[in-house]
Amino acid sequence: MYPEILLRPAGKAGDSVPVTILTVVEDLLFLSKIQQTATVLGIDVRPMDLSAWAEARTDDLPHAIILDLNHRSISPLELVRNLKAHAATRRIPVVGFASHIQADLISAARAAGCDIVLARSAFTQQLPKLLDGLRGSARARGG
Whole-model pTM? Predict the structure, then answer.
């Protein structure tokens, strides 16, 4: 279901590579669910500061980005296209989610470069496995 890069095992229990996943999510209840699940798994998840993104140093890049494709304050598809257009950020896995009835938006997100696009319900159900897969992928890439 997920691209191969996200299916790597998370590694040994003693691994201490810190993993940071940024979120672009407006719904505070949904964001809270993501953060609570990440905390249980020992993953640092925090909101993405879009205003500071342009000045981000390549050594401060996140290991993945979770994106609400229905975000109203930004253009999610433009953000994905921009991330995938730059050498420093194109390898950052982007996980998008939208309502299952938004087939056109889901297709557009995939075309824009989202690595994984899920319906909100599937995203919620698979969140622990998804976060663990993103952590494993980050560790396999060397942090």
Answer: 0.81
